[in-house]
């Protein structure tokens, strides 16, 4: 069995993790967005998006535990179908 230096292993692992963080998915390719991403994407304020997510039967809210995400396609449709928010 080959002996591995623990410091080399840590450096290698940290380098791989750093590389993975650099590979981000473009917003238009994501299925669900964070509130901040949705705000940047739509140019609608974070507070307004959070308010919309609190409305009953909101068509674009996705609950992941306690976290609220925005379903991108439904959000785009909501914006296209409304002239005022």
UniProtKB/TrEMBL annotation:
**Pfam families this protein is in?**
Tn916-Xis
Name the domain of life.
Bacteria
Listed InterPro entries: Tn1545/Tn916_Xis (IPR038148), Tn916-Xis (IPR015122)
Name the record gives this protein: DNA binding domain-containing protein, excisionase family
Taxonomic source organism:
[Clostridium] aminophilum
């Amino acid at each position: 069995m080959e002996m591995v230096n623990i410091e080399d292993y840590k450096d290698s692992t940290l380098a791989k993790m750093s590389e993975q963080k650099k590979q981000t998915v473009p917003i238009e390719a994501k299925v669900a967005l964070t509130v901040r991403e949705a705000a940047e994407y739509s140019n609608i304020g974070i507070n307004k998006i959070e308010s919309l997510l609190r409305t009953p039967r909101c068509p674009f809210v996705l609950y992941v535990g306690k976290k609220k995400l925005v379903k991108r396609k439904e959000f785009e449709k909501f914006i296209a179908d409304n002239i005022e928010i």
